[in-house]
Design goal:
Blueprint: H1 15-38, H2 40-49, H3 52-84, H4 87-104, H5 115-140, H6 150-175, H7 201-204, H8 206-217, H9 219-224, H10 235-251, H11 256-286, H12 291-319, H13 321-340, E1 342-343, E2 346-347, E3 350-351, H14 365-393, H15 401-411, H16 418-430, H17 433-438, H18 440-451
Antiparallel strand pairs: 1-2, 2-3
Helix pairs in contact: 1-5, 1-6, 1-8, 1-12, 2-3, 2-11, 3-5, 3-10, 3-11, 3-16, 4-5, 4-8, 6-12, 11-14, 11-16, 11-18, 12-13, 12-14, 13-14, 13-18
Main location: membrane
Transmembrane segments: 57-77, 89-107, 113-136, 156-178, 205-224, 258-283, 289-311, 323-342, 369-392, 404-429, 435-454
Membrane topology: Multi-pass membrane protein
Length: 457
């Protein structure tokens, strides 16, 4: 096996090693696109649970538990991994757990005792495992290229990840997932491997498909990408990692503007996590979209996210990163307001013709408006993610950027459970999916108000 040690400072790793690192995002993305958002999640609500309100609440609680575990484990494990080295070993171990949980989704059959709990548990553990793998993979980046090329390689990985999500979704829609009314996929053929389209077995197959996809495309990283040298092991490593984390937290009060920014980022990131977790579920339940329609919607949002990231970066050079973040948060609130005004037979106060059972895809006015809203959400989320990290660069001491980027990552995770949990509680208490989605307005509004008080260099 090649690629045992990281590149020396000032030297880039071989191209094959860089390609292995970039392919990690491609390997992991189907879980976020297909399992968590636009594929398995609507199936879980519509078929596994069979009650849109209860299903959205269950999914919200499950997402919140996963986010809480990620918030607790990520900073601690991250500090420990930094002390130990051997990052590929961690990626391989957490990747194996992730793949196993994805395969288990195939065995969660609707109507069987314990299937709902088993499915939620599998998705929860898979989410924790893949997020830890993502964290460790990100930590490999500075050892692969010179600092002046880190941004370029990071952007390439993120863009390729989004493209991978689109490709994986397209494969699932054309080969696995069928319209339950016709039993045919988007290509007009029966699902491959003998999957029963009428019983939507293609949606259950998303789990094993995501596991296989990850297993295939993670191999170049494990085989060719250089790893950090082992530093130390055992209890001293854990103590050293936790000590480094405590030191970073103690430093924060000395930088009040940075502290307010990190709190703002924490709040609006919570809202963004919940928005993506619930967007496909809302479309499936309120507009009655099939798995194929939700999948196509997901491809649209993902593609818009790529364009938004590119446009957001250019806009930062013109009006500044803080202004771009404030603008995108305002537009996300507008998109949420538009979402709440939609129903199958109305757009705001205006009555429209509802979708017909024998219709062409997205032929009703309400559906087309939701497509436009989804495009806006994708554009804003891409621009938001691209510009938020630049705000940090304008606030953090230049000689301690790595340390504060660690705190930046922590702020995006430490309360990430609050968004999905708030949606779940509001949905259950008000017996309304719209009430659950409306709660997210608060997250964006509070984050926006707090960021408005922050002045950057």
């Amino acid at each position: 096996m090649t690629g045992d040690h990281a590149a020396r400072p000032g030297m880039a790793a071989p191209r094959l090693a860089l390609a292995g690192w970039v392919l990690f995002d491609w390997a992991a993305q189907p879980f976020f696109s297909l399992v968590q958002t636009f594929g398995y999640a609507p199936y879980f609500v519509r078929v596994m649970v069979g009650d849109p309100v209860a299903g959205q609440a269950y999914w919200g609680y499950g997402t919140a538990v996963a986010a809480l575990l990620i918030a607790v484990l990520s900073p601690t494990l991250g500090a420990i991994v930094d002390q130990m080295g051997r990052r590929k070993l961690w990626i391989g171990a957490t990747g194996a757990i992730y793949a196993l949980c994805c395969v288990l989704l195939w065995f969660c059959r609707p109507g069987e005792p314990g299937a709902i709990v088993m499915a939620l548990a599998a998705v929860c553990v898979a989410a924790v495992a893949i997020e830890i793998a993502v964290m460790v993979n990100n930590a490999m980046l500075p050892g692969l290229v010179d600092r002046s090329h880190v941004g370029r390689l990071s952007g390439l990985g993120a863009a390729l990840g989004n493209v991978g999500g689109v490709v994986a979704t397209l494969l699932v829609l054309t080969l696995f997932v069928a319209n339950p009314g016709t039993g045919k996929t988007l290509l007009g053929i029966a699902p491959i491997l003998g999957l029963d389209g009428a019983h939507q077995e293609g949606a259950r197959a998303i789990g094993p498909f995501s596991a296989l996809w990850f297993g295939c495309f993670i191999l170049p990283l494990l085989l060719f990408t250089p790893d950090a040298r082992p530093i130390r092991t055992g209890t001293p490593t854990i103590r050293a990692g936790l000590s480094a984390l405590r030191a970073s937290l103690r430093e924060l009060p000395r930088h009040p503007a940075l502290l307010r920014f990190l709190i703002a980022n924490m709040i609006y990131t919570d809202g963004l996590v919940a928005l993506f977790a619930m967007g496909g579920i809302f479309a499936s339940s309120i507009l009655g979209w099939t798995a194929i329609q939700v999948g196509l919607f997901g491809m649209l949002v993902t593609t818009a996210g790529i364009a938004g990231a590119l446009a957001g970066g250019s806009l930062v050079d013109r009006i500044g990163a803080r202004a771009v973040v404030l603008l995108t948060l305002g537009l996300l609130m507008a998109a949420l307001a538009g979402t709440l005004s939609l129903g199958p037979d109305h757009v705001g106060p205006w009555a429209v013709a509802p979708p017909r059972p024998d219709r062409v895809l997205f032929d009703s006015a309400a559906e087309r408006v939701y497509l436009a809203i989804g495009t806006l959400i994708g554009l804003c989320s891409g621009a938001l993610l691209a510009s938020t990290r630049i705000v940090l660069i304008g606030l953090a001491p230049p000689d301690r950027l790595t340390q504060f980027f660690g705190l930046f990552a922590l702020s995006g995770r430490v309360t990430a459970f609050l968004g999905p949990l708030s949606v779940a509680v509001a949905t259950q208490l008000m017996a309304s999916q719209r009430a659950g989605i409306a709660v997210l307005m608060v997250f964006f509004a509070v984050g926006m108000a707090l960021l408005a008080t922050v002045k950057t260099r």
